[in-house]
Amino acid sequence: MFIDAIGMFIFIFLLTLIAIPMSALIVTLRARIGGRYLNRYFIISRKKSGVYEIHHQPMLGFYYAGERKFHRLWKEAIWKFQVEYPDLTLIANTLTFVSRSRGAMPVETSRLMLMFSRYMGDFLIVLNLANYRRVEGKWRVLHLIQKVHRRIPVTYILVGEKP
User: Where are the bilayer-spanning segments (predicted)?
Assistant: First the structure.
C-alpha cells in the first residue's frame, strides 16, 4: 500500500516535470509557425478588436530570469513588435507589471476569472526558478504571490494609440 502510494507520487511528479515543458514547447512552436513569436519568453495573440496582446510564455515552461533579465527580454519583445508591426497596438493584461507612466486601466472581470488570473500568475511565478531565494529574510516567491493576490488586473497599452 505504502509502496503503491510512493509509486503514484513519483509518477505524478515525473508526469508534471515532463508535461509542463512539453506543453510550453508546443504552444511556443505554434506561435513561431503562426508568426506570433517574439522571443523565448513572450508571444503575442490577436484580439477580436484588432489589437495584439503580449503573453508571457516561457519556451520550456520552467525558466530562470532575475528582474534585470526579465525586464531586458520584455523590452526586447516590445521592440521586436514595434519593428514588425509599426502601425498596430500592443496591450498587456497583467497583475504583476506596474507602470505609473503607462496609464493602467482596470479590467472589468468576474470573480471566477479574477481567481483564475491570480492562480495563473501564481503558476508563472512558481515556474521561475530565480524566485526561489531569500530577499531581506523573506522568500521572494511568497512575496510575489502575495503581491499578485492584492492587485486587480489592469491593461497597459504598450505600443500604439491610447484611447
Answer: 6-29
**CB distance 121 to 95 below 8 Å:** yes
Q: What are phi and psi of 9, to 5 degrees?
A: -60, -45
pLDDT score at 38: 94
3-state secondary structure at position 59: coil
Count Cα neighbours of 109 within 13 Å in the Cβ-side half-sphere: 19
Residue whose C-alpha is closest to residue 148's, from 119, 128, 127, 126: 119
Q: Where are the domains of the chain?
A: 2-159
Residues for the chain: how many in total? Answer: 163
Mean pLDDT of 62-70: 89
Phi, psi at residue 110, to the nearest 5°?
Answer: -75, 165
| Per-residue pLDDT, 89 | 92
